[in-house]
Write a structure and sequence with these properties.
The structure is a single chain. This protein has 424 residues and is an all-alpha fold. The protein has two domains: 12-206, Clc chloride channel; 224-421, Clc chloride channel (Orthogonal Bundle). It is 70% helix and 3% strand. It contains 16 helices and three strands. It has helices at 2-58, 66-79, 88-97, 103-119, 126-143, 148-167, 170-179, 191-206, 224-258, 262-280, 290-296, 305-318, 326-340, 348-364, 367-378, 383-396, and strands at residues 182-183, 407-410, 417-421. Strands 1-2-3 form a three-stranded mixed beta sheet, with no helix packed on it. Strand 2 and strand 3 form a beta hairpin. Helix 12 (305-318) runs antiparallel to helix 13 (326-340) and helix 14 packs across helix 16 (383-396). The radius of gyration is 22 Å and the shape is globular.
Length: 424
């Protein structure tokens, strides 16, 4: 009898491990499948954007056809019955509320983003990659007839894989999908599938030459003075992130107030961007602007650069063009920091790194992701600076945010449950 109870006691913990290991292996497989599929499509997306950018740079006069590009984007969304598409917000809703996304969403954001980049609209790629990845993951969940909860997880897998494939930062990509949905909690149930999907998507995209940029940050020996100067830049960048969100979230409303027809809005926005490009006499603000971000780490940016990028992006996305908001946020933050750092006696590369991380953190409300992203992009040598930057930006950006469907579950000032949507 004693032996029977002993065997029963020993077998009990192993019984509890069976469903855990079944779930573990299930999500390893689903993560690989999702990461693989998204990695392939995201790689094709990356190559398509590169080809579109090459054509635009070879024939810069094409920017005067930007109004036509706007009409094409509007027609694509009309034909696919996605006139009321909410962009990345739709992915957040799909994860939080179990709403379905399909390959229609994938096709629309893919074509819309390529057209926007081809004709010179100011938009990024990472936000588009989140939509591509999330919609592919959601479609896979429908095909596999997954449960509602598993469907949400596989959508998060797609988000991670898409972000990682386009920017080459798998750790930040995995964490972003877990952190961005509901601020104040982390969806740790998604940690294995998101990591597997992110690494898989990143490795596949690396085969076609997509990967992270190499940013060199030059910082003097760490000291209290350096940290204080870094904090000043972070405070200013956090306030800039609030303004960034305000401008982008209200740009579409202003267009709709004065131009009700979506085709006229797209054409008018395209014309405005083309004319503004002619006035500025540079193509720095068209497309994503990664080359300008890299430059901000080498040479101090002019004081107007970050403001112009924000204006170009608001005119583009507000009119109905498609693309991501994250790369323009990187541009805005890096340019601002690159300009501000020399005023405080720091190298422009330090300011660019702080500005990029702080604005990204402020618009997404994802401090852990922003911190890990900083390490993946800039290296681990100046961890205290990046940690301080993200902490300051997260608190001082308040309850602003780029995604109106994002929820703030816990207060930023005290351990209090508030459950409010961004901007409300």
């Amino acid at each position: 009898m004693k032996h029977y109870h002993l065997i029963k006691l020993v077998r009990k913990p192993f019984k509890t491990l069976v469903p855990i290991f079944k779930g573990f292996f299930k999500w390893i497989v689903l993560g690989l499948i999702t990461g693989g599929a998204v990695g392939v499509i995201a790689s094709l997306f990356h190559l398509s954007l590169g080809a579109a950018t090459d054509i635009r740079e070879k024939y810069p006069v094409i920017i005067w056809l930007l109004p036509v590009g706007g009409l094409l984007v509007a027609l694509i969304y009309k034909c696919l019955h996605l006139e009321h598409d909410k962009g990345t917000n739709m992915v957040l809703v799909a994860v939080r509320d179990g709403k379905d996304l399909t390959l229609r969403n994938t096709l629309s954001i893919f074509l819309g983003s390529v057209i926007t980049h081809l004709f010179g609209g100011s938009a990024g790629r990472e936000g588009a990659a989140l939509q591509i990845g999330g919609s592919i993951g959601s479609q896979a969940g429908l095909w596999l007839k997954l449960s509602n909860q598993d469907h949400r997880l596989i959508t998060m897998c797609g988000m991670s894989a898409g972000f990682a494939a386009l920017f080459g930062t798998p750790a930040a990509a995995a964490l972003f999908a877990m952190e961005v949905i509901s601020v104040g909690i982390m969806h740790y149930s998604a940690i294995v599938p998101c990591v597997v999907a992110a690494v898989t998507g990143c490795r596949i995209s690396a085969l076609v030459g997509s990967g992270p940029e190499n940013f060199k940050v030059i910082l003097p020996e760490m000291s209290a003075v350096v940290l204080m100067k870094s904090a000043v830049i972070a405070v200013a960048a956090a306030l800039l992130s609030i303004f960034f969100c305000f401008v982008l979230r209200n740009a579409a409303g202003l267009y709709k107030r004065y131009i009700r027809n979506p085709y006229l809005r797209a054409a008018a926005g395209g014309g405005a961007v083309a004319i503004l490009t002619f006035i500025c006499g540079t193509y720095d603000y068209n497309g994503g602007g990664m080359e300008v971000i890299v430059r901000a780490f080498d040479v101090a940016a002019p004081p107007w650069q970050f403001a112009l990028k924000l204006l170009f992006t608001a005119l583009t996305l507000g009119a109905g063009f498609k693309g991501g908001e994250i790369l323009p946020a990187f541009f805005t933050g890096a340019s601002f920091g690159s300009f501000a750092a020399p005023l405080l006696g720091l190298d422009c590369s330090v300011g660019a790194a702080i500005g990029l991380a702080a604005v990204f953190c402020g618009i997404t409300n994802c401090p852990v992701t922003a911190f890990i992203l900083s390490i993946e992009l800039f290296g681990a040598e100046y961890i205290p600076v990046y940690m301080l930057t993200c902490a300051i930006s997260y608190m001082l950006s308040g309850y602003a945010g780029l995604y109106s469907e994002q929820k703030i579950l816990y207060s930023k000032l005290e351990p209090k449950y508030i459950d409010k949507k961004i901007g409300r």
